[in-house]
Amino acid sequence: MSIADNLKQYKSEVESDGAKLIAVSKTQPIESILEAYNAGQRIFGENHVQEMVEKEAQLPKDIEWHLIGHLQSNKVKYIAHFVKLIHGVDSLKLLQEIDKQAKKNKRVIDCLLQVYIADEDTKFGLGFDEVIEILRDEAFAELKNIRIVGLMGIATNTKNEKQITIEFHELKVFFDGIKVSFFRKEDSFKEISTGMSADYKIAIAEGSTMVRIGSSIFGKRIIKHFKNDISTN
């Protein structure tokens, strides 16, 4: 099947359940992204800053770019003028840098707090208590150019669907609690970004509003390393 056919299948299924489809375009060539774009996709997710910067410059300006990978504070300045949503925010320090760069660009940047829900040491994210600590911090209250619109989580990489279901469910329960405690009057706090190709159906059933699907749409990735392309100075 073509990229357009794959996209149509997933887009129809995901959106009929009330969620948004983020097409994960990392390592995919411009031509493949354009094929998805021409088939109606507008939200694309990238893991690495340099790769997203290069693609944003070459592709239509009505694309919503989501940074879904781990973001280093010193890379924020490269995407602050165009990024739509940053999924993996896992520290107050990073929020402060995003706020700083957003202010320079005279905009407000939407962010998701990444919560650690997996039973794996390799995953990034905040503990439930750390999320609450950030939201109660006086320094957080001073940030005027960022907007927390929800939470993000990555489940354990396992075939045990019961475990995955529990992890997603716990995040939804936590989201509901945070909504009531800190964002009761904020209609914008509504997103739960969980679910990828292997577990997106479970994620949606457990309250996900955004799912991230890549290779199932685009096919096998072309491996290219962008991590060290941008100067860290």
Tags for this entry?
233 residues, alpha/beta, TIM Barrel, eight-stranded parallel beta sheet, 10 helices, 8 strands, 17% strand, globular, pyridoxal phosphate
How is this fold's topology laid out?
Elements: H1 3-16, E1 20-24, H2 30-38, E2 43-46, H3 49-58, E3 64-67, H4 76-79, E4 85-89, H5 92-104, E5 109-115, H6 128-136, H7 138-141, E6 146-153, H8 161-182, E7 191-193, H9 200-205, E8 210-213, H10 215-218
Concise synopsis of the structure shown:
With 233 residues, the protein is of the alpha/beta class. It is built from 10 helices and 8 strands.
Can you describe this structure?
The protein has an eight-stranded parallel β-sheet with strand order 7-6-5-4-3-2-1-8. The longest helix has 22 residues, at 161-182. It is of the alpha/beta class and 233 residues long. It has helices spanning 3-16, 30-38, 49-58, 76-79, 92-104, 128-136, 138-141, 161-182, 200-205, 215-218, and strands spanning 20-24, 43-46, 64-67, 85-89, 109-115, 146-153, 191-193, 210-213. Strand 6 (146-153), helix 8 and strand 7 form a beta-alpha-beta unit. It has one domain (3-218): Alanine racemase (TIM Barrel, Alpha-Beta Barrel), CATH 3.20.20. 41% of the residues lie in helices and 17% in strands.
